[in-house]
Design brief:
With about 575 residues, this protein is α/β, with parallel strands linked by helices. It has 19 helices and 18 strands. The protein folds into 3 domains: about 70 residues, no CATH class; about 210 residues, 3-Layer(aba) Sandwich (Rossmann fold), CATH 3.40.50.300; about 230 residues, P-loop containing nucleotide triphosphate hydrolases (Rossmann fold), CATH 3.40.50. It is globular, with a radius of gyration of 32 Å. GO terms for molecular function: ATP binding; hydrolase activity; nucleic acid binding; RNA helicase activity.
Length: about 575
């Protein structure tokens, strides 16, 4: 049999190519067969040894070279010069901030293999691509040419009473955020509001300011003989949030000579009665359970209210609160038109305000029972349900047994900066265990979880907020609405169980008034954690909203858009 003299490089290249191209396989096979059968007419059984050279067709050689170049030069993303959006342990999975995926292009994820045990120690970071929160309106420099209407608007141009403006000025608050700029004029004009905006965007002031303004105007117009009554109720899910909202309200209501009281969960009937002992407050901040206790003892009549606010809507419309909320709203006379919010007290109906950073699907069903949904003006932030672009977010794949050591190192580093750190756990038992462990390590902290008695919980968050202690270990009770301007770092010791919880936890940093750049560190341990992380990473790479966050929030229809009035100038 004649020898076929083929160089090793050509043969290996040919075989590599043949394994990937069945069509070329037959062409090459024909060449080899011809070489064996037609070498100088030699008989197959002949012992004559004459070397035969196989010549690979030029077009096949070119295809082989193309395949080699593609395999050697293909990269996941072409990294352009500039800031990275995604920074991964594997540099090939980095993504520049300017890169945009096509509609049908599938991004390669840093967390793709994180369900495997060998992935421990892997990490990636979603960098902040801007330094200013997207909900902060730009402020026009003095002496420069105005570039847009919103840049010139201050609170003084929103037709608020002088006492309110003085109170805001004392806190150096002069310019409204985007959500405040949209909400305040609507509430002043008597509309019901459904406000959906990202965490930390100033939603509390967006409803407090117009309500306090209108309460003062109403009180000034009433005669001396008018029977005092509670005219506004603000519903919140926790006593900590009730204390916080009432503190802000008192600072604003004081100069306006309006009374604010608080009734929260875990307090007995005697404590609730004290809120009304000096007469009905103008504004009552309450949790649903405490408000129902006050209603049963006839401390207030919901039919006489002028304003009802439901804050933190995703929690308030949750099954744990929805039954009580429906009972409360059923006893409230909610207006279906702005004209019904004007006129004398006996005929005047209440404005309804529902605010939140996320909304569950059942909101519409509950609200439709108390008012015409078409009467509600929807104010929806354009950044709602997006990852916050001004907050750096890092994900670390770590064994459960290593989380305590990792947290200890993080807290030791943060201890030197004297800034606030929130550590989130999914269970109250984990909060307690982690607290005892950190005590053994000599790290000073406080704990906050829902199973604590009301007397123990009282003042814990306040001490953290005032800087008396820098580390707060907590459950999601601290993730809803609480103002945490001094927090620089959020640590998800347990990865949140839903994307909604992730949004609220990350919203504890990068808030209006925050002086520190916010960061979030998440420990990823379980396989079900990885599934959520992959959804977050995909949304970050595609620059889209987080999946499954679509809710019953409707966009304003054309008629509502036509009815919108110009902002006060």
């Amino acid at each position: 049999m004649p020898f076929v003299k083929v160089s090793n490089s050509v043969l290996s290249t040919s075989m590599s190519y043949l394994s990937n191209s069945s069509s070329c396989y037959f062409k090459a096979l024909a060449c080899i067969s011809g070489a064996f059968g037609s070498a100088s007419g030699a008989h197959p059984m002949s012992t004559t040894t004459q070397p035969v050279v196989i010549r690979i067709p030029r077009h096949i050689q070119e295809k082989v070279e193309n395949v080699k170049q593609l395999r050697g030069n293909t990269k996941i993303n072409t990294i352009k010069a500039g800031k990275l959006l995604i920074m991964s342990k594997n540099p090939e999975l980095n993504q520049s901030a300017g890169y945009t995926f096509g509609k049908f292009e599938q991004p390669q994820l840093s967390s793709k293999g994180w369900k495997h045990n060998k992935s421990y120690g892997d990490y990636f970071t979603i960098n902040n691509t801007q330094t200013t929160p997207p909900f902060i309106t730009e402020i026009q420099d003095e002496g420069s040419e105005p570039k847009g209407k919103s840049k010139q608007v201050t609170f003084s141009k929103l037709h608020l009473c002088p006492d309110l403006l003085d109170a805001l000025g004392k806190d150096n608050i002069t310019h409204p955020t985007t959500v405040q700029l949209q909400t305040i004029p609507k509430l002043l004009n008597g509309y019901n509001i459904l406000c959906a905006a990202e965490t930390g965007s100033g939603k509390t002031l967006s409803y407090l300011l117009p309500i306090i303004h209108k309460l003062q105007v109403e009180k000034a117009a009433e005669s001396v003989e008018t029977t005092p009554r509670t005219r506004s109720v603000i519903l919140v899910p926790s006593r900590e949030l009730a204390d916080q909202v009432s503190a802000v309200a008192r600072s604003l209501c004081g100069p306006c000579r309006l009374m604010v009281k608080t009734v929260g969960g875990g307090r007995g009937v005697g404590r609730i009665r004290l809120a009304f002992i000096k007469g009905p407050p103008d504004m009552l901040v309450a949790t649903p359970g405490a408000l129902i206790k006050a209603m049963r003892r006839r401390y207030l009549d919901l039919g006489e209210l002028s304003f009802v606010v439901v804050d933190e809507a995703d929690t308030m419309f949750d099954p744990s609160f929805s039954g009580m909320l429906e009972s409360i709203l059923a006893q409230t006379r909610v207006a279906s038109d702005p004209s019904e919010t004007r006129g004398p007290s006996p005929t005047r109906k209440a404005q309804l305000v529902v605010v939140g950073a996320t909304f569950p699907g059942g909101v519409g069903e509950v609200l439709s029972q108390v008012t015409d949904l078409g009467s509600m003006v929807t104010i929806k932030s354009k950044n709602l349900h997006f990852l916050m672009p001004h907050v750096k977010q890092t994900f670390l794949k770590v064994r459960g047994s290593d989380k305590l050591l990792e947290l200890h190192q993080v807290l030791k580093t943060a201890e030197q900066d004297k800034t606030g750190v929130l550590v989130f756990c999914n269970r109250a038992s984990t909060v307690n265990w982690l607290g005892f462990s950190l005590e053994d390590m000599g790290l000073r902290h406080v704990r906050l979880q829902g199973e604590m008695p009301a007397s123990v919980r009282a003042g814990i968050f306040h001490s953290f907020q005032k800087g008396m202690v820098d580390v707060l270990i907590c459950t999601d009770i601290a993730s809803r609405g609480l103002d945490t301007q001094r927090v620089r770092l959020v640590v998800n010791y347990d990865f949140p169980e839903s994307l909604t919880d992730y949004i609220h936890r990350t919203g504890r940093v990068g808030r209006v008034g925050s002086v520190e750049k916010g960061e979030v560190l998440s420990f990823v341990t379980h396989r079900w954690d990885v599934e959520l992380v992959q959804k977050i990473e995909t949304a970050a790479r595609r620059k889209t909203i987080l999946p499954g966050m679509e809710s019953a929030i409707r966009k304003p229809d054309a008629k509502a858009a036509e009815e919108e009035e110009e902002l006060p100038s």
